[in-house]
Amino acid sequence: MSKLSNKVALVTGGNSGIGLATAKLYKDEGAQVIITARSNETFEKAKKEYGNVFDVVQTDVSKVEDLDRLYAHIKSKYGKLDVIFANAGIAQTAPTAEVTPDFFDNQFNTNVKGVFFTVARALPILAKGSTVVLNASVVASKGFVGSSVYSATKAAVRNFARTWTAEIPVDQVRFNVLSPGPIETPIFGKMGMPDEHKAGMAAGLPIKRLGRPEEMARVALFLASDDSSYLAGAEIMADGGFGQV
Ligand code: NDP
Q1: What number is the average pLDDT over the span 169-196?
Q2: Long-range contacts for 94-101 (Cβ within 8 Å, ≥24 apart)?
Q3: Mean pLDDT of the 192-203 span
Q4: Which GO terms describe its molecular function (predicted)?
Q5: Best substitution site from 20, 57, 183 to test ligand 1's pocket, by max atoms within 8 Å of Cβ?
Q6: How many domains does the chain fold into?
Q7: Ligand 1 within 6 A of 211 CB?
Q8: Residue closest to 11 by CA, chosen among 28, 35, 29
Q9: Which of 17, 52, 72, 208 sits at 20 to 30 Å (Cα–Cα) from 61?
Q10: ipTM of the prediction
């Protein structure tokens, strides 16, 4: 029996990395999957590569008008939404003294405002018994050099799940958090991190390797499905032990 049969699932940032692996798994488990991509370039690429597998919608999650357009599309095409993996995010690191207001706003606009309105604007179309999985990070609860701003964005995301669990009836929408450790995705290239730095980071982990997107997808499936039926406002650290060192 597939775990997401008859479900309509949205994966923001489903064109890359953890989001793409999760979108594929949700699809394999029976869901109709909508993915978003942000820029013209990534949207066209995703449409070409995955247009016959997923419903690809160009959306910048930091723009509320884009989210409203996305949800109008989902409502008219599917009539409902059952699962959201609020995954779209950016990571930038800088020593605190070098953080500019633009750097700060950019991170918060995508990672905090983006996640907030991805959920807030979906509430009217979320079916009873929906699940929302928020993608935070192990650094939401751990010091990490250069990540004061990014970590704060992810701490905010983690807290959204707690507040919404208190505010919104759990039998209506169940919120939980996936907090990955370092996972091998394009995000490191976008941050400009050299390969030797990645290798050093892997060596410092208790598990001695970076995680794979597919390993996060399995946790994101658990949290989206009835397998996690008694979890509400919970956080799963999928971090190879990074939070312990
Ligand atoms: P990727 O860079 O592979 O994917 C990031 C995704 O987010 C892309 O699909 C990107 O879309 C999308 N995105 C970024 N900004 C926006 C925006 N404003 N609107 C819509 N989409 C946007 O990285 P990961 O798969 O690694 O990251 C996915 C999530 O996991 C992020 O939230 C990240 O913070 C979190 N995470 C990742 C970790 C890791 O080590 N990889 C560790 C902990 C957490 P596009 O390609 O169109 O720009």
Answers
A1: 96
A2: 94/146, 94/149, 95/146, 96/148, 99/148, 99/149
A3: 92
A4: oxidoreductase activity, acting on NAD(P)H, oxygen as acceptor
A5: 183
A6: 1
A7: no
A8: 35
A9: 52
A10: 0.99
